[in-house]
Amino acid sequence: MKGHRNPSPITHHPSRIPYFPGCALKDQARGFERAARAAMERLGYELAELPRWNCCGTVYSLSSDDLMRHVAPVRNFIRVQEMGERKLVTLCAMCYNTLRRSADFVSADPERLRRINAFMDEEPDYAGGVEVLHLLQILRDEITFEEVEAKVERPLYGLKVAPYYGCMLLRPREVGIDDPDAPEVMELLVEYLGAEAVDSPHKVECCGAYQTVANPGIARERVQEIVGAAARRGADVIITSCPLCTYNLEHHQLGEEKPHHPSLITHHPIPVLYFTQLLAYALGVPEGELGFEDAAIDPRPALSQRVGG
Amino acid sequence: MVERKMNPSPITHHPLRIPAGEPDFVRKVEELSGEDVFACYQCGKCSAGCPFTSGMDLLPAEVIRLLQLGDERVLSSRSPWVCASCLACEVRCPKGVDIAKVMEALRLLVLRKGETGLTWEEIPPGVPQIALVGATRKLTP
Ligand code: SF4
Ligand code: SF4
To answer: Which residue of B has its CA nearest to A209?
Structure first.
Protein backbone atom coordinates (compact mmCIF):
# COMPACT_ATOMS: atom_id res chain seq x y z
CA MET A 1 0.00 0.00 0.00
CA LYS A 2 1.64 3.19 -1.17
CA GLY A 3 -0.63 5.74 0.43
CA HIS A 4 -1.99 5.85 3.93
CA ARG A 5 -5.04 7.42 5.44
CA ASN A 6 -4.52 10.67 7.22
CA PRO A 7 -4.85 9.71 10.88
CA SER A 8 -6.31 13.01 11.96
CA PRO A 9 -10.05 13.57 11.54
CA ILE A 10 -9.56 17.33 11.52
CA THR A 11 -6.85 19.59 10.30
CA HIS A 12 -3.70 19.47 12.48
CA HIS A 13 -3.39 23.21 12.81
CA PRO A 14 -6.85 24.63 13.28
CA SER A 15 -5.66 28.06 12.20
CA ARG A 16 -3.73 26.88 9.15
CA ILE A 17 -5.99 25.69 6.37
CA PRO A 18 -4.76 23.88 3.22
CA TYR A 19 -5.78 26.08 0.34
CA PHE A 20 -6.33 25.42 -3.37
CA PRO A 21 -6.09 28.69 -5.35
CA GLY A 22 -6.86 27.56 -8.90
CA CYS A 23 -5.68 29.20 -12.12
CA ALA A 24 -7.85 32.29 -12.24
CA LEU A 25 -6.70 33.47 -8.82
CA LYS A 26 -3.15 33.68 -10.10
CA ASP A 27 -4.22 35.65 -13.14
CA GLN A 28 -7.24 37.88 -13.63
CA ALA A 29 -8.64 37.37 -10.13
CA ARG A 30 -5.52 38.15 -8.10
CA GLY A 31 -7.43 40.56 -5.90
CA PHE A 32 -9.77 37.74 -4.84
CA GLU A 33 -6.81 35.84 -3.38
CA ARG A 34 -4.84 38.79 -2.02
CA ALA A 35 -7.88 40.03 -0.15
CA ALA A 36 -8.67 36.55 1.18
CA ARG A 37 -5.16 36.09 2.53
CA ALA A 38 -5.16 39.52 4.15
CA ALA A 39 -8.62 39.02 5.66
CA MET A 40 -7.80 35.57 7.01
CA GLU A 41 -4.61 36.89 8.55
CA ARG A 42 -6.62 39.51 10.41
CA LEU A 43 -8.92 36.74 11.61
CA GLY A 44 -5.92 34.75 12.88
CA TYR A 45 -5.88 32.14 10.11
CA GLU A 46 -3.42 31.22 7.42
CA LEU A 47 -4.30 29.93 3.97
CA ALA A 48 -1.57 27.35 3.33
CA GLU A 49 -1.29 26.97 -0.45
CA LEU A 50 -1.02 23.36 -1.64
CA PRO A 51 2.44 22.59 -2.99
CA ARG A 52 2.42 21.58 -6.68
CA TRP A 53 -1.32 22.01 -7.12
CA ASN A 54 -2.74 21.64 -10.62
CA CYS A 55 -5.82 22.97 -12.42
CA CYS A 56 -8.99 21.25 -11.16
CA GLY A 57 -10.36 21.01 -14.71
CA THR A 58 -12.73 23.98 -14.28
CA VAL A 59 -15.95 22.15 -15.13
CA TYR A 60 -17.11 18.91 -13.58
CA SER A 61 -17.69 16.07 -16.03
CA LEU A 62 -21.35 15.06 -16.09
CA SER A 63 -20.78 11.75 -17.81
CA SER A 64 -20.75 8.47 -15.95
CA ASP A 65 -17.73 6.97 -17.73
CA ASP A 66 -15.16 9.74 -17.80
CA LEU A 67 -12.67 8.70 -15.10
CA MET A 68 -9.90 10.73 -16.75
CA ARG A 69 -11.60 13.95 -15.74
CA HIS A 70 -11.17 13.01 -12.07
CA VAL A 71 -7.42 12.57 -12.23
CA ALA A 72 -6.68 16.29 -11.83
CA PRO A 73 -8.84 16.72 -8.70
CA VAL A 74 -7.52 13.51 -7.14
CA ARG A 75 -3.94 14.61 -7.70
CA ASN A 76 -4.72 17.71 -5.65
CA PHE A 77 -6.23 15.56 -2.90
CA ILE A 78 -2.96 13.60 -2.76
CA ARG A 79 -1.16 16.89 -2.10
CA VAL A 80 -3.50 17.51 0.86
CA GLN A 81 -2.84 14.01 2.11
CA GLU A 82 0.92 14.62 1.87
CA MET A 83 0.52 17.71 4.03
CA GLY A 84 -0.96 15.39 6.65
CA GLU A 85 -4.22 17.32 6.40
CA ARG A 86 -7.81 16.48 5.64
CA LYS A 87 -9.54 19.74 4.78
CA LEU A 88 -9.09 21.71 1.60
CA VAL A 89 -10.48 25.20 1.19
CA THR A 90 -11.17 26.98 -2.11
CA LEU A 91 -12.21 30.52 -2.98
CA CYS A 92 -13.33 30.06 -6.57
CA ALA A 93 -16.85 28.63 -6.79
CA MET A 94 -15.99 26.63 -9.92
CA CYS A 95 -12.98 24.99 -8.26
CA TYR A 96 -15.11 24.30 -5.20
CA ASN A 97 -17.77 22.54 -7.26
CA THR A 98 -15.38 20.54 -9.44
CA LEU A 99 -13.20 19.40 -6.54
CA ARG A 100 -16.10 18.72 -4.19
CA ARG A 101 -18.04 16.67 -6.76
CA SER A 102 -14.94 14.70 -7.73
CA ALA A 103 -14.24 13.95 -4.06
CA ASP A 104 -17.78 12.61 -3.75
CA PHE A 105 -17.57 10.74 -7.08
CA VAL A 106 -14.47 8.77 -6.13
CA SER A 107 -15.57 8.10 -2.57
CA ALA A 108 -18.93 6.74 -3.79
CA ASP A 109 -17.30 3.72 -5.45
CA PRO A 110 -13.97 2.14 -4.38
CA GLU A 111 -13.52 0.66 -7.86
CA ARG A 112 -13.37 4.15 -9.42
CA LEU A 113 -10.71 5.21 -6.96
CA ARG A 114 -8.77 2.00 -7.46
CA ARG A 115 -8.63 2.57 -11.21
CA ILE A 116 -7.59 6.19 -10.85
CA ASN A 117 -4.86 5.26 -8.34
CA ALA A 118 -3.62 2.51 -10.66
CA PHE A 119 -3.51 4.98 -13.56
CA MET A 120 -1.47 7.53 -11.57
CA ASP A 121 1.28 5.06 -10.79
CA GLU A 122 3.85 7.82 -10.22
CA GLU A 123 1.82 9.18 -7.29
CA PRO A 124 1.10 7.73 -3.87
CA ASP A 125 -2.42 6.31 -3.67
CA TYR A 126 -5.19 8.64 -2.65
CA ALA A 127 -6.85 7.06 0.37
CA GLY A 128 -10.01 9.15 0.26
CA GLY A 129 -11.43 11.36 2.96
CA VAL A 130 -10.40 14.86 1.87
CA GLU A 131 -13.15 17.31 2.71
CA VAL A 132 -13.51 20.13 0.18
CA LEU A 133 -14.83 23.36 1.66
CA HIS A 134 -15.50 26.85 0.42
CA LEU A 135 -14.11 29.81 2.36
CA LEU A 136 -17.65 31.03 3.06
CA GLN A 137 -18.26 27.79 4.98
CA ILE A 138 -15.13 28.32 7.07
CA LEU A 139 -16.22 31.88 7.84
CA ARG A 140 -19.77 30.86 8.74
CA ASP A 141 -19.26 27.52 10.46
CA GLU A 142 -15.78 27.60 11.92
CA ILE A 143 -14.77 31.18 12.53
CA THR A 144 -18.41 32.35 12.82
CA PHE A 145 -19.76 35.66 11.59
CA GLU A 146 -19.93 36.99 15.18
CA GLU A 147 -16.17 36.58 15.41
CA VAL A 148 -15.79 38.32 12.04
CA GLU A 149 -18.01 41.17 13.22
CA ALA A 150 -15.86 41.64 16.31
CA LYS A 151 -12.84 42.31 14.06
CA VAL A 152 -14.54 44.82 11.76
CA GLU A 153 -12.60 48.09 11.74
CA ARG A 154 -14.37 49.82 8.92
CA PRO A 155 -18.09 49.01 9.19
CA LEU A 156 -19.82 49.29 5.85
CA TYR A 157 -22.78 51.31 7.11
CA GLY A 158 -24.93 52.64 4.31
CA LEU A 159 -23.44 50.42 1.60
CA LYS A 160 -25.98 48.38 -0.36
CA VAL A 161 -24.55 45.07 -1.46
CA ALA A 162 -26.23 42.58 -3.80
CA PRO A 163 -24.80 39.08 -3.33
CA TYR A 164 -24.68 37.06 -6.54
CA TYR A 165 -24.32 33.30 -6.02
CA GLY A 166 -24.62 31.91 -9.53
CA CYS A 167 -24.62 28.13 -9.84
CA MET A 168 -21.56 26.41 -8.51
CA LEU A 169 -21.82 27.29 -4.82
CA LEU A 170 -25.35 25.95 -4.64
CA ARG A 171 -25.99 23.15 -7.11
CA PRO A 172 -26.45 20.26 -7.07
CA ARG A 173 -28.13 20.30 -3.68
CA GLU A 174 -25.77 17.68 -2.19
CA VAL A 175 -22.74 19.93 -2.65
CA GLY A 176 -24.42 23.29 -2.14
CA ILE A 177 -23.02 25.35 0.72
CA ASP A 178 -26.51 26.72 1.38
CA ASP A 179 -30.18 26.30 0.38
CA PRO A 180 -30.06 26.29 -3.46
CA ASP A 181 -33.37 28.16 -3.73
CA ALA A 182 -32.94 30.71 -0.96
CA PRO A 183 -29.30 31.03 0.10
CA GLU A 184 -28.37 33.57 2.76
CA VAL A 185 -24.73 32.98 3.64
CA MET A 186 -23.48 36.02 1.71
CA GLU A 187 -26.35 38.19 2.94
CA LEU A 188 -25.41 37.31 6.52
CA LEU A 189 -21.76 38.06 5.92
CA VAL A 190 -22.62 41.42 4.35
CA GLU A 191 -24.85 42.36 7.27
CA TYR A 192 -22.27 41.36 9.89
CA LEU A 193 -19.89 43.71 8.07
CA GLY A 194 -22.37 46.52 8.64
CA ALA A 195 -23.69 46.81 5.08
CA GLU A 196 -27.22 46.32 3.83
CA ALA A 197 -27.87 43.17 1.80
CA VAL A 198 -29.96 43.70 -1.34
CA ASP A 199 -31.96 40.61 -2.24
CA SER A 200 -32.65 39.82 -5.86
CA PRO A 201 -34.63 37.03 -7.51
CA HIS A 202 -31.85 36.53 -10.05
CA LYS A 203 -29.06 35.93 -7.54
CA VAL A 204 -29.03 32.15 -8.10
CA GLU A 205 -29.46 32.27 -11.88
CA CYS A 206 -26.60 31.44 -14.24
CA CYS A 207 -24.57 34.36 -15.65
CA GLY A 208 -23.87 32.49 -18.89
CA ALA A 209 -20.72 30.81 -17.56
CA TYR A 210 -18.49 29.43 -20.34
CA GLN A 211 -21.24 30.07 -22.90
CA THR A 212 -19.81 33.59 -22.91
CA VAL A 213 -17.39 32.09 -25.45
CA ALA A 214 -19.84 30.20 -27.68
CA ASN A 215 -23.06 32.18 -27.20
CA PRO A 216 -22.04 35.63 -25.94
CA GLY A 217 -25.43 37.08 -26.87
CA ILE A 218 -27.21 34.86 -24.36
CA ALA A 219 -24.64 35.59 -21.66
CA ARG A 220 -25.22 39.28 -22.24
CA GLU A 221 -28.97 38.83 -21.93
CA ARG A 222 -28.49 36.88 -18.68
CA VAL A 223 -26.17 39.48 -17.18
CA GLN A 224 -28.44 42.39 -18.04
CA GLU A 225 -31.30 40.68 -16.31
CA ILE A 226 -29.19 39.87 -13.23
CA VAL A 227 -27.56 43.28 -12.95
CA GLY A 228 -30.76 45.10 -13.93
CA ALA A 229 -32.59 43.44 -11.02
CA ALA A 230 -29.84 44.40 -8.55
CA ALA A 231 -29.77 47.95 -9.89
CA ARG A 232 -33.53 48.43 -9.57
CA ARG A 233 -33.19 47.41 -5.93
CA GLY A 234 -30.59 50.09 -5.34
CA ALA A 235 -27.40 48.03 -5.11
CA ASP A 236 -24.14 50.00 -4.93
CA VAL A 237 -21.99 46.93 -5.56
CA ILE A 238 -22.45 43.26 -6.43
CA ILE A 239 -20.34 40.54 -4.77
CA THR A 240 -19.44 37.14 -6.20
CA SER A 241 -17.20 34.20 -5.39
CA CYS A 242 -16.36 33.26 -8.97
CA PRO A 243 -13.90 34.80 -11.44
CA LEU A 244 -16.05 33.74 -14.40
CA CYS A 245 -19.21 35.27 -12.91
CA THR A 246 -17.21 38.42 -12.26
CA TYR A 247 -15.92 38.55 -15.82
CA ASN A 248 -19.40 38.07 -17.25
CA LEU A 249 -21.11 40.49 -14.88
CA GLU A 250 -18.53 43.18 -15.66
CA HIS A 251 -17.95 42.58 -19.33
CA HIS A 252 -21.60 42.29 -20.38
CA GLN A 253 -22.57 45.46 -18.53
CA LEU A 254 -20.06 47.42 -20.57
CA GLY A 255 -19.68 47.71 -24.32
CA GLU A 256 -21.45 49.41 -27.13
CA GLU A 257 -24.26 46.97 -27.83
CA LYS A 258 -27.77 47.99 -26.90
CA PRO A 259 -29.44 46.16 -24.01
CA HIS A 260 -31.65 43.38 -25.31
CA HIS A 261 -34.57 44.84 -23.43
CA PRO A 262 -34.67 48.60 -22.86
CA SER A 263 -36.01 48.37 -19.31
CA LEU A 264 -33.14 46.19 -18.21
CA ILE A 265 -30.25 48.60 -18.34
CA THR A 266 -31.31 52.03 -17.21
CA HIS A 267 -28.50 52.62 -14.76
CA HIS A 268 -24.79 53.31 -14.57
CA PRO A 269 -22.55 50.21 -14.42
CA ILE A 270 -22.46 48.51 -11.03
CA PRO A 271 -19.04 47.47 -9.69
CA VAL A 272 -18.50 43.76 -9.08
CA LEU A 273 -16.33 42.74 -6.12
CA TYR A 274 -15.21 39.41 -4.73
CA PHE A 275 -16.70 38.81 -1.31
CA THR A 276 -13.17 38.60 0.11
CA GLN A 277 -12.45 42.14 -1.09
CA LEU A 278 -15.46 43.47 0.76
CA LEU A 279 -14.55 41.42 3.83
CA ALA A 280 -10.92 42.56 3.87
CA TYR A 281 -11.99 46.17 3.29
CA ALA A 282 -14.31 46.01 6.30
CA LEU A 283 -11.60 44.36 8.41
CA GLY A 284 -9.42 47.40 7.76
CA VAL A 285 -6.97 46.05 5.19
CA PRO A 286 -5.54 49.07 3.31
CA GLU A 287 -7.37 49.73 0.03
CA GLY A 288 -4.14 49.43 -2.00
CA GLU A 289 -3.81 45.76 -1.06
CA LEU A 290 -7.19 44.64 -2.33
CA GLY A 291 -6.69 44.59 -6.08
CA PHE A 292 -9.48 47.11 -6.74
CA GLU A 293 -7.40 48.53 -9.59
CA ASP A 294 -7.97 45.32 -11.61
CA ALA A 295 -11.75 45.72 -11.62
CA ALA A 296 -13.32 46.63 -14.98
CA ILE A 297 -15.75 48.92 -13.11
CA ASP A 298 -13.91 50.77 -10.36
CA PRO A 299 -15.59 50.09 -6.99
CA ARG A 300 -13.69 52.79 -5.12
CA PRO A 301 -16.08 55.69 -5.82
CA ALA A 302 -19.06 53.67 -4.52
CA LEU A 303 -17.14 52.52 -1.45
CA SER A 304 -15.74 55.90 -0.51
CA GLN A 305 -19.02 57.67 -1.17
CA ARG A 306 -20.90 55.36 1.19
CA VAL A 307 -18.33 54.23 3.69
CA GLY A 308 -16.23 57.36 3.53
CA GLY A 309 -12.88 55.76 2.60
CA MET B 1 -28.58 -0.18 -18.53
CA VAL B 2 -30.04 2.30 -16.13
CA GLU B 3 -32.31 0.91 -13.50
CA ARG B 4 -35.87 2.22 -13.80
CA LYS B 5 -36.99 4.29 -10.88
CA MET B 6 -40.46 4.81 -12.30
CA ASN B 7 -43.60 3.08 -11.24
CA PRO B 8 -44.18 0.72 -14.17
CA SER B 9 -47.84 1.55 -14.55
CA PRO B 10 -49.29 -0.36 -17.50
CA ILE B 11 -51.15 2.73 -18.68
CA THR B 12 -48.31 5.22 -18.93
CA HIS B 13 -45.54 2.72 -19.25
CA HIS B 14 -46.59 0.67 -22.20
CA PRO B 15 -47.09 3.18 -25.00
CA LEU B 16 -43.76 4.81 -24.22
CA ARG B 17 -41.82 1.57 -24.26
CA ILE B 18 -41.84 0.59 -27.87
CA PRO B 19 -42.08 -3.25 -27.98
CA ALA B 20 -38.84 -3.62 -29.92
CA GLY B 21 -37.08 -1.81 -27.07
CA GLU B 22 -35.50 1.60 -26.95
CA PRO B 23 -33.45 2.69 -29.92
CA ASP B 24 -29.71 2.41 -29.42
CA PHE B 25 -29.11 6.13 -29.09
CA VAL B 26 -31.58 6.42 -26.21
CA ARG B 27 -29.86 3.58 -24.40
CA LYS B 28 -26.51 5.28 -24.96
CA VAL B 29 -27.81 8.57 -23.59
CA GLU B 30 -29.06 6.75 -20.51
CA GLU B 31 -25.76 4.96 -20.03
CA LEU B 32 -23.63 8.06 -20.48
CA SER B 33 -25.82 10.19 -18.24
CA GLY B 34 -26.77 7.55 -15.71
CA GLU B 35 -30.30 9.02 -15.91
CA ASP B 36 -33.64 7.37 -16.58
CA VAL B 37 -35.38 9.57 -19.14
CA PHE B 38 -38.62 7.62 -18.69
CA ALA B 39 -38.88 8.88 -15.11
CA CYS B 40 -39.89 12.28 -16.53
CA TYR B 41 -43.63 13.01 -16.38
CA GLN B 42 -43.42 16.19 -18.45
CA CYS B 43 -44.32 18.69 -15.74
CA GLY B 44 -42.19 21.32 -17.48
CA LYS B 45 -40.46 22.71 -14.37
CA CYS B 46 -37.07 22.27 -16.01
CA SER B 47 -38.12 24.30 -19.03
CA ALA B 48 -39.70 26.98 -16.85
CA GLY B 49 -36.51 27.50 -14.86
CA CYS B 50 -33.93 27.19 -17.63
CA PRO B 51 -32.34 30.60 -18.23
CA PHE B 52 -31.09 29.66 -21.69
CA THR B 53 -34.28 28.77 -23.54
CA SER B 54 -34.14 31.88 -25.73
CA GLY B 55 -31.31 30.21 -27.64
CA MET B 56 -32.78 26.70 -27.71
CA ASP B 57 -34.81 25.01 -30.44
CA LEU B 58 -36.18 22.41 -28.00
CA LEU B 59 -37.06 23.18 -24.37
CA PRO B 60 -35.33 20.92 -21.83
CA ALA B 61 -38.58 18.98 -21.22
CA GLU B 62 -38.99 18.55 -24.98
CA VAL B 63 -35.50 17.11 -25.23
CA ILE B 64 -36.49 14.50 -22.66
CA ARG B 65 -39.81 13.86 -24.41
CA LEU B 66 -38.18 13.20 -27.79
CA LEU B 67 -35.79 10.79 -26.08
CA GLN B 68 -38.76 8.97 -24.55
CA LEU B 69 -40.28 8.70 -27.99
CA GLY B 70 -36.99 7.59 -29.55
CA ASP B 71 -37.23 10.52 -31.96
CA GLU B 72 -33.84 11.04 -33.61
CA ARG B 73 -34.48 14.72 -34.23
CA VAL B 74 -33.21 15.28 -30.68
CA LEU B 75 -29.72 14.35 -31.90
CA SER B 76 -29.49 17.41 -34.12
CA SER B 77 -31.02 19.82 -31.61
CA ARG B 78 -29.17 23.00 -30.78
CA SER B 79 -30.28 22.93 -27.15
CA PRO B 80 -27.45 20.82 -25.65
CA TRP B 81 -24.95 23.26 -27.19
CA VAL B 82 -26.64 26.26 -25.58
CA CYS B 83 -27.03 24.59 -22.18
CA ALA B 84 -24.51 26.00 -19.70
CA SER B 85 -24.68 23.09 -17.24
CA CYS B 86 -26.10 25.52 -14.68
CA LEU B 87 -28.15 22.78 -12.96
CA ALA B 88 -31.21 24.98 -12.42
CA CYS B 89 -33.23 22.15 -13.96
CA GLU B 90 -31.51 19.52 -11.86
CA VAL B 91 -32.49 21.07 -8.52
CA ARG B 92 -36.08 21.58 -9.66
CA CYS B 93 -37.03 18.26 -11.22
CA PRO B 94 -39.55 16.54 -8.94
CA LYS B 95 -38.65 13.19 -10.52
CA GLY B 96 -34.94 13.51 -9.86
CA VAL B 97 -33.94 13.63 -13.52
CA ASP B 98 -30.60 15.39 -13.94
CA ILE B 99 -31.27 17.02 -17.31
CA ALA B 100 -27.82 18.61 -17.36
CA LYS B 101 -26.37 15.09 -17.50
CA VAL B 102 -28.71 14.20 -20.35
CA MET B 103 -27.61 17.32 -22.23
CA GLU B 104 -23.98 16.33 -21.65
CA ALA B 105 -24.67 12.82 -22.96
CA LEU B 106 -26.24 14.28 -26.12
CA ARG B 107 -23.14 16.42 -26.64
CA LEU B 108 -20.86 13.46 -26.04
CA LEU B 109 -22.62 11.39 -28.72
CA VAL B 110 -21.51 14.06 -31.20
CA LEU B 111 -18.12 14.95 -29.66
CA ARG B 112 -16.99 11.36 -29.44
CA LYS B 113 -17.33 11.12 -33.21
CA GLY B 114 -14.71 13.86 -33.40
CA GLU B 115 -17.15 16.63 -34.31
CA THR B 116 -17.03 19.98 -32.55
CA GLY B 117 -19.62 22.38 -31.18
CA LEU B 118 -17.22 25.31 -31.12
CA THR B 119 -14.70 26.68 -33.59
CA TRP B 120 -11.88 28.93 -32.49
CA GLU B 121 -12.77 31.82 -34.78
CA GLU B 122 -15.81 32.47 -32.63
CA ILE B 123 -13.83 33.27 -29.50
CA PRO B 124 -13.98 36.93 -28.51
CA PRO B 125 -10.73 38.49 -27.26
CA GLY B 126 -10.04 39.03 -23.56
CA VAL B 127 -12.08 36.17 -22.10
CA PRO B 128 -10.54 34.55 -19.03
CA GLN B 129 -8.93 31.14 -19.33
CA ILE B 130 -11.54 29.47 -17.12
CA ALA B 131 -14.15 30.35 -19.74
CA LEU B 132 -11.96 28.92 -22.50
CA VAL B 133 -11.18 25.74 -20.58
CA GLY B 134 -14.84 25.32 -19.61
CA ALA B 135 -16.07 25.88 -23.17
CA THR B 136 -13.50 23.59 -24.76
CA ARG B 137 -14.18 20.85 -22.23
CA LYS B 138 -17.92 21.01 -22.80
CA LEU B 139 -18.16 21.89 -26.48
CA THR B 140 -15.16 20.39 -28.28
CA PRO B 141 -13.99 16.76 -28.66
S1 SF4 C 1 -38.71 18.82 -14.39
FE2 SF4 C 1 -38.24 16.60 -14.50
S3 SF4 C 1 -40.24 15.60 -14.62
FE4 SF4 C 1 -40.59 17.75 -15.06
S5 SF4 C 1 -40.50 17.88 -17.30
FE6 SF4 C 1 -38.43 18.32 -16.57
S7 SF4 C 1 -37.38 16.34 -16.56
FE8 SF4 C 1 -39.58 15.91 -16.73
S1 SF4 D 1 -28.42 22.89 -16.99
FE2 SF4 D 1 -28.81 23.39 -19.14
S3 SF4 D 1 -30.92 22.72 -19.52
FE4 SF4 D 1 -30.65 22.79 -17.31
S5 SF4 D 1 -31.42 24.81 -16.70
FE6 SF4 D 1 -29.19 25.00 -17.02
S7 SF4 D 1 -28.94 25.64 -19.16
FE8 SF4 D 1 -31.06 24.85 -18.93
So the answer is: B84
